[in-house]
Design goal:
By secondary structure, the chain is mainly α. Helix content is 59%, strand content 0%. The protein contains four helices and no strands. It is globular, with a radius of gyration of 11 Å.
């Protein structure tokens, strides 16, 4: 799952996948803006069939935060 999420973020922000890992901060390290985050989350929601509320998106600071959230919510929905 981490690899797929990194791939989505890499494509959206035009950053090589080799520069991304679970500890990469979306805003601080990647200079992503709120529109970038919305687009990334829409792709992740489509990929994994989950809906992430805006108030939860705000709490996701690092790539690993997104992975943990998606892992936790895809298990519950199965």
């Amino acid at each position: 799952m981490l690899e797929k999420i990194i791939e989505i973020i890499s494509e959206q922000l035009s950053v090589p996948t080799g520069e991304l890992n679970a500890n990469t901060a979306l805003f601080d390290d990647l200079s992503a803006d709120s529109l970038d985050i919305v687009e990334i989350m829409m792709r992740i929601e489509d990929e994994y069939g989950v809906k992430v509320p805006d108030e939860d998106i705000i709490e996701m600071k690092k790539i690993g935060d997104i992975v943990k959230y998606i892992e936790g919510h895809t298990r519950k929905e199965k």
